Protein 1
Amino acid sequence: MSPTRGGSQEDQAGEADSVDREAISGTAEGGKGTWRHAAIHVATTIATPAAYAPLPFALASLGWPLGVCSLVIGTLVTWCSSLVVASLWQWNGEKHTSYRLLAKSIFGPWGYWYVSFFQQVASVGNNVAIQIAAGSSLKAVYKHYYAADDSAAVTLQHFILLFGAFEMFLSQLPDIHSLRWVNATCTISTIGFAVTAISITLYDGHRIDRKEVGYSLQGTTATKIFRGFNALGTIAFSFGDAMLPEIQSTIREPVRRNMYKGVSTAYLLIVMSYWTLAFSGYWSFGSEVQPYILSSLTAPAWAIVMANLFAVIQITGCFQIYCRPTYAYFEERIQAKNTRRKAWVWRLMYTSVYMVAITLVAAAMPFFGDFVSVCGAVGFTPLDFVLPALAFLKVGKLPKNPGLRHAIKALGSTVTVFFCVIGALACIGAIRAIVLDIKTYKFFHDI
C-alpha cells in the first residue's frame, strides 16, 4: 500500500524529508535505547504537571459522570492508539524515524503535510503552555519566600523569561537520545510531583468544611456548554504524544516489543497519577478548583513549594522533546545546504529565534488553561485520536473472521468520526475562552 509516486506536492514532501531520518533522533543506523528509555521518554512527553494539573478543573467543567467517563475513554483510546502507531513503525519493511514519514508511507504526501501541520501546532502550543506552567510554579516558590518584600517584586513574565533561557541552553543537545538523563530526572520528578500534589490535595480536602464544597456546574447554560467543550480539549491535551515514532527511532531491537513495554509502563504511571489527582482534586475543591491545581492548594506551605519545584524540573524535559520537530525542520535546511562546518552556529541561531518567539507569546498571554485546551483540540486530537485509527483501518492487520473484521472496522470508523467532532467542539470552546480572557486581562498581565 505504498503511496503513488508523482506530483509536485509529493516532490516537495520528498525533498523536505530527505534528511529527516537523521534530524530528530540522530540514530538513523539503529537506536541504542532500551524499553526503559522508551518508558522514560513517553512518560516525560505525556505525564507532565502541565498535562494533569488542569484535569481536576476539567472534571469540574463536566461533572462527575461525564468527567470520569471522558477521562477513562481518553486513557484507553490513546493507549491503544500508541500501540497502533508503535506497531506500524516498520509496517512496510522500512523504518520511519518520524511521525510525518510514517504518515507519508501510509497516506502519501497529504499524510506528510497533515502530520507536519498538526505536529507543529501541538509542539508550539504545548511549549507555550509549559512556559506558562513553569513560570507560574517558579513564581509560587518565589511568593512563599518573598511575599512580604514589596521591594523584591518579580512578575510572572520574569520567571517565564528565566525558564526560556534555561531551555535555550538545553536546546543545544543534539537529539532525543541525548536527553535520556534529563528525562530520567524528569520521570522521577513526575512521581514526586504526583505524590506530593495528591497528598496536599487530600490534606486540604479534609481541612475544608465539606458542607461548603459543591459539585454543580457553574454559570449560565451557554457557559456550561462552552466550558464542557473546553474541558474536552484539556483532556485531549493531557494524553498528547505526537512524538512516538521519533522516540521509537531511538530504541534498540526488538523495537516493537521494547516500545510496547515502554508505552504500557508509561501508561501505568499515567493512570496512577492522572486519575488519582483528577479525582482527588475535584473531590477536595469541587466547582471552585483552579485551572492549575497547585493554585488551589493552601497548606502545608513547604509541601506546596516541593510540588512546584517538582513541576518545573519535570517539564524541562517535556519542553525539549516537543522542540524537536521544529528544530528538525531547520536542520533539514542546514544539511541540505551542506553547512555542517558551521552547524553549531546555525543551531544557536534558530534555537534562539524559537525560544524568543515561544517566550514572547507565553509572557504576553499567560492564560494556561486556554492554551492547554487549544493545543489539545487543534494539535493532539488529530494526531493521537484520529490519525492512528485511520492508519490502522488502512494498513493494520485485521482478523480473518469476517464478523470480527467488520466490528473492528466499525469501531475504528466510530473513533475517527467521534473524535473529529470532539476536536471541533473543543476548539470552539477554547477559542471562546481565549477571547474572553483577552477582553478581561491586558497583554503581559501578571497572574
Note: Residues 1-13, 15-29 have pLDDT under 50 and may be disordered.
Protein 2
Amino acid sequence: MSDQVLHSISHRRYNPLTGSWLLVSPHRTTRPWLGQQEASSKNELPEYDPKCYLCPGNQRAQGDSNPQYKNIFTFVNDYSALNEEQQDYTPEASKNDIASLLLQAEPATGRCYVITFSPKHDLTLADMATADIVPVIQAWTRIYASHLSPSHKLYAQAAQALAAIPASPDGEVAPPTKGQLRYMQIFENKGAAMGCSNPHPHCQVWTTSAMPDEPRKELAQMAQYRRDHGGRHLLDDYARLEMEKQERVVWQNAGFLVVCPWWAVWPFEVLVIAKRHVRALVDLTDAERVQFAEAVQEVTRRYDNLFETSFPYSSGIHQAPLDCAEEEAETSWFHMHFYPPLLRSATVRKFLVGYELMAEPQRDITPEQAAAKLRNCGGELYRKTPN
C-alpha cells in the first residue's frame, strides 16, 4: 500500500538513529485547543541592554565584566553544569550485589562555555546573514579542535583547520583543560519556551568526561548499521534516499541537506546532514563552512517566517567524540538537530507529556506535511519586509 495512506491513519515510525519508535496521529490536527498558549514573541529588543550579562562591557552575575567585543565572545560559563575540580567519589565496595546493580553512580567532570553570536542584543541567527554566521561556525570549530585528544584520528586535521581559520579578533577564553575530556556538545536554546534565560544571541558548549546518552545511542546505531551493511553509513544512505524521494526535503545546497526526518518527534523538527563523510567540524572545508552557515540561516529564517514570530527551538551538533578510537571517529557522521516546540501557531506548542512520557513519543502532523510548510517559508525574513 502506498505511503500516502500514512497521512490519514495512526501509525508508528522507526528511528534508526536511536533504535526507538514513535506514534504518529495525523487525524488529531483538527482537535480543538483550550490549553496553554505561549506569548507570541516579536523580538522587540534593544540593540544594547545595560542589564544584559552578555552584552559588551556589562558585568556578569558573578562579577566579571565582558570586554567591549565587536564580533564573538567566548568564555567559561559562570554557572557551569560540570566542573573540572571537585571532591573525589569512589563507589564503596559492597557485598550487596543488588545495591551494586541498582544504585550506580560515577563522577562527571568537564567544562562549560558560552559563545555569543553577536554583540547586538536584538539579533538571532534568523536575522544574521550567512556571512555573519560563518564566524560562529569558525568559533565552534576552534573550540572543538582545541579540546581534541592528541591521539585522536582527527588531531592532524584539526591542526590544519585551526591554521586555516582566522583567530577570533576579540580573543577567546578557552584555557587548556586539566585532563582529556570525552565529548563536546554544542547547543543553542532559543526562546523562553525552550528555557532560554537570556535573549542575547548565544549558544552553550558543554565538554564532559563521559559520553552522553543521545550521541552514545546514535553512535551505537550507526556502528551497527556499518557492520550490517558492508561499511555503508546510515546517514549517507538516509540522505541519498531523502534526496531521491524529495518528500521531506526542506532545502539543500552542495554540502548539506535539510530534511524533516521520517522519525521526527517535534512538529517542525529538522535534521541538517552533511552530504559527504564529514566526521566533525574540523573536516569542513572553507566552502563547506559557508554552506553549513547557509543551512543554519535557512532553517532559522524559515522557522521565523512559518508563524511570523521569533521561533523557539533547541538545536545541537552531533559529531565525533573528543577522545575516541579510530572506528568511532570513522563511524561518526556530522549532523545538526533542530527541535522546535510550536505546533499550530505562534502561541500553541507541542507538549511531551502523558503518553509521551509514559509510553513513547507521539506527533500529530506528519513530517511530510511539516516539510511542505517549511519549503513554502523561504524568501526574505518576514520582519524585514515592509507591511
Note: The two ends are 46 Å apart (CA to CA).
Protein 3
Amino acid sequence: MMAPSRGPPILTRQLHTTLSSHRGPVHVVRYAKGSAKYILSGGQDRTIRLWNPDSGAEIKTFEAHGYEVLSISVSHDNAKFASSGGDRSVFLWDVATGVTTRRLAGHMGKVHTVEFNADASVLASGSYDTTIRLWDLRSQSRAPIQVLEEARDAVQALHVGPMTILAGSVDGYVRTYDLRKGELRADFIGQPVTSVVPSADATTLLVATLDSHVRLFDAATGKLLNAFTGHTHTSYRCRACFGHEEGSVVCGDENGQVWAWDLVDAAVLQPNPPPKVHNKVITWTEHHPTEAGEMVTASADATVKVWRQT
C-alpha cells in the first residue's frame, strides 16, 4: 500500500553542522545502519573518520590506507565496515578497536566501490581493472569466490541484493547479475555510470551518469521510467539517492548545488536552481535510512555537511 500523498516532497535544506577535519576532497560518506546516529567519511587524505552528526564531534580516525579512500560499506550490525581506494586492496575494519581485521588483495587497479550483502557474509568490490570480485568473509581463503569480468571499463558502483548484484560501469552499462539463475542482464545507458541505487523494494533503480542525468529504471525490465535533469554532472563521480520514503530524487552536482526532483513528475523541487552549498563538486549524497529530515553531503571542498529539518 502506498501512503496517502502529503503534498509535494520537500528537501532538508537547513545546515545542522559542518564536519571539516579532512585534508582534501571527501569522496564518500555513509550512515550507520538503522537508527544508529553515526556517519563514516573517507577521503583523499587516506583517512576514514567516524562522526557523531548530532554534535559534529569526530569520534575516531581510522588510518591504514596508503592511498585515497574512495568507498565505504557498513555492515548490518554496525560492528564492522569495509573500505577501498587507491591501494588496490579492500580493507575490513573492526569499529570498536579501530584496526583492520583483513585485507583482500587481487585487484590490479584502484577499487572504486565495495558493498556488503545483507548479513555481511559476502563483500563485493569493483575496480578500475574492470572486474568485480566477490569475497566470502566466513572463509579463511584469501581468494575471491567469484570474479565477474563482463565490464569493459572501470566499475564505479555496486549494490548487493539478496539475489542480485547491480554494477554500474564507465562503459555505459548497468549490469544485473542474477546469482540464483546464473544470468546476466546488461542495460546500455550510453554514458559513464557513477552511481546505481535500488529502491527499498528493489523494483526500480536510480542511475546517475556523466551526461547530467539521473534516470529511474524498472529493475525487472530495464525500461526507462523517468529522467531528472538540471544539474551539472559531466566529469566526476557524483552519487544520487532517493529522498525520504522515496518521494523524491536527490543529487549533488559539480557546482556545489544539491538538486531534488519529485519522483513522479520529475519536476525540480524549489528552489530552482538550488543554492550553492559546497565550494566544489559534491561527490556523495546520502539520506538517513530512518530519519525523515536528515541527509548528508560530501564534497571535494574537504567538508561533510549534515542537513536537517528543524
Note: The mean pLDDT is 95.
